[in-house]
Amino acid sequence: MTMDSRVLVGFTLILIISGSLLVSGQGTCQGDIEGLMKECAVYVQRPGPKVNPSEACCRVVKRSDIPCACGRITASVLKMIDMDKVVHVTAFCGKPLVHGTKCGSYIVP
């Protein structure tokens, strides 16, 4: 995937997640959703290998309410990200998602 398409995917994810946070009527999640997309999108997008995230990505993960954001993931977002990669990134960064956490229609094994 070229850098331009990665940037496009990142911006698309930001817009989709931001929109779902605002439209849901349930308030916003603590943390930096834009930062998550900027620093971590490359590690969770489809396609590509599962790789360990950067320190910058982990810093954002550690200060974000991932289960809250996870609860607002839409079907559109699930088409663009690999939830197995999301589980890997959060675990690698020291904030593993609990077994049974629901992210859109995905349930953490």
From TrEMBL:
Q: Does the keyword Signal apply?
A: yes
Question: Could you identify this protein by its name?
Answer: Bifunctional inhibitor/plant lipid transfer protein/seed storage helical domain-containing protein
Record's Gene3D superfamilies?
Plant lipid-transfer and hydrophobic proteins
Q: Which Pfam families does the entry link to? A: LTP_2
Top-level lineage group: Eukaryota
Cited CDD domains? nsLTP_like (cd04660)
Which interval of the chain is the signal sequence? 1-25
Q: Which InterPro entries match?
A: Bifun_inhib/LTP/seed_sf (IPR036312), Bifunc_inhib/LTP/seed_store (IPR016140), NsLTP-like (IPR044741)
Keywords for this entry?
A: Signal
User: Which intervals hold domain Bifunctional inhibitor/plant lipid transfer protein/seed storage helical?
Assistant: 27-103
